[in-house]
Amino acid sequence: MQKSDFAKLDVPSSPGVYIFKDARGRILYIGKAANLKERVRSYFAPKHRLVAERGPHIAKMIEEVESLEWVETQSGAEAVILEANLIKKHEPPYNTKEKSNKSFNFVLITNEEFPRVLVVRGRDLNKKIKDEQIKYLFGPFTESSLLRKLLKIVREIFPFRDKCEMGAGKVCFYRQLNLCPGVCTGEISKKEYAKVIRNIKDFFEGKKEKVIKSLDREMREAAKKQEFEKAAVLRDKISALQNIKEMALVEELYKLGEAGIDKDIKRIEGYDIAHTAGQARVGAMVVFESGRFNKNEYRIFNIKTKKEGDTDALEEVLLRRFKHKEWKLPELIVIDGGKAQMETAKKVLQKLKLNIDVVSVVKDERHKPKRILGSKKIIELAKSTILKINAEAHGFVLSAHRKRRGREFLSNS
Q1: Which of 129, 215, 224, 327 is the most exposed, having the fewest neighbouring CB atoms within 10 Å of its CB?
Q2: Taking a C-beta distance cutoff of 8 angstroms, is the pair 341, 310 a contact?
Q3: Residues in contact with 405: Cβ distance below 8 Å, sequence separation at least 6, in sequence order
Q4: Which residues contact 279 (CB under 8 A, 6 or more apart)?
Q5: What is the third-level CATH fold of 3-98?
């Protein structure tokens, strides 16, 4: 295949893994991306630019490439896991060359009564850890910072033990943050903890749907036994897994300049609302500035209006946000929702006499982006960035909502 032909391939703009092969069908390189189309396109830049940005070994690899395959995933997190599993299976030569002077990272689950979940460098596996101490091993993961962020997501859903001592009788640091299930204090049985480890194992093997089915079965059983608090916890875990779009991951999967955003758009703000049956309502604002997320300017709004409905909550959030004259104004606002939410945002901006473009991301029944409403020119120019910002806002608001609901539960118990 001519290199110019790769630009004609119908590569999707979704998260996933891409696979470069040579003329014999041998896998040369496996990579991950939050936007497959943009990432693949970046490999076919002029050679001098490719050498400068990715190194001479990748430029040489591209000269050998004859075909391309890709696998779409539901999120950047799953792309990270799939890439690691495929690299382990196929051992592509250029993946090894890319980090010839570094060590890959692995997730290790120890072979103990209450297993620990650890991140271990490849060079330390043989030096510090004996085979009989390893229950499960996942990897290699090519980027340590990305892996640690992924593990943070997993730990928020499935709290696990890493350093605490069994039966220590005192609460460890992570137990105080609800990131350890209480191995140190004896709050969790061996049987229940085994379920946690099994779910983590299945997740790192790329079996997210299996984990969700298992949790759904547990939730229904708990509901039948009228264990409603346990059922609610399981429901939240299912929701978190179905919406696992932690944008700290996606942000790293993107390279600056790949998002396709107009250079004139310096600041974009994303908004989303979260609640459970109208309770513990919160709104979130995220900020994308000069090609990257500015987390120092993220904000959470506890909804005060007694009016029900997401549009009233969104109206409140926007009115409160634009009272802050000291905050820089955005050139674009990204709303989560349909036509009603977008019209609400436009109404607020018109009332405040602000000339700011608005787009709205419409979701399907599985809460996946279905279409974007708004200016066709802006959507065509910045579709991937809009979806990235929407997903970031959604992840941020869910995290805030879970914390608020937890506080309200404790105050009412």
Answers
A1: 224
A2: yes
A3: 276, 279, 280
A4: 405, 408
A5: GIY-YIG endonuclease (3.40.1440)
For residue 116, the 8-state DSSP code is B
Where b means 16+ CB within 10 Å and e means fewer, 203-224 reads bbebebeebbebbeebbeebee
3-state DSSP assignment of residue 333 = strand
Structure tokens that stand for 76 in this block: 């950047």
For residue range 286-307, list pLDDT tens digits in order. Answer: 999 877 788 899 999 998 887 7
Average pLDDT rounded to a whole number, residues 71-100 = 80
* 8 A C-beta contact, residue 397 and residue 282: yes
The answer, yes or no, to whether residue 115 has pLDDT greater than 90, is: yes
CA dist 330 and 221 (Å) reads 48
**Is the bond preceding 140 in cis, omega lying within 30 degrees of 0?**
yes
Structure token pair of residue 72: 């779409």
Domain ranges of the chain: 3-98, 105-242, 259-412
Question: Helix count (H) and strand count (E) of the chain?
Answer: 15, 13
Q: Does domain 259-412 have CATH number 3.30.565.10?
A: no
State the average pLDDT over residues 212-227: 90
Half-sphere exposure (Cβ direction) of 353: Cα atoms closer than 13 Å: 0
At CA 70, angle to CA 69 and CA 76, rounded to 5? 160
pTM: 0.53
Instruction: Say what percent of the chain tops pLDDT 70.
Output: 84
Cα 383 to Cα 2: distance, rounded to the nearest angstrom: 28
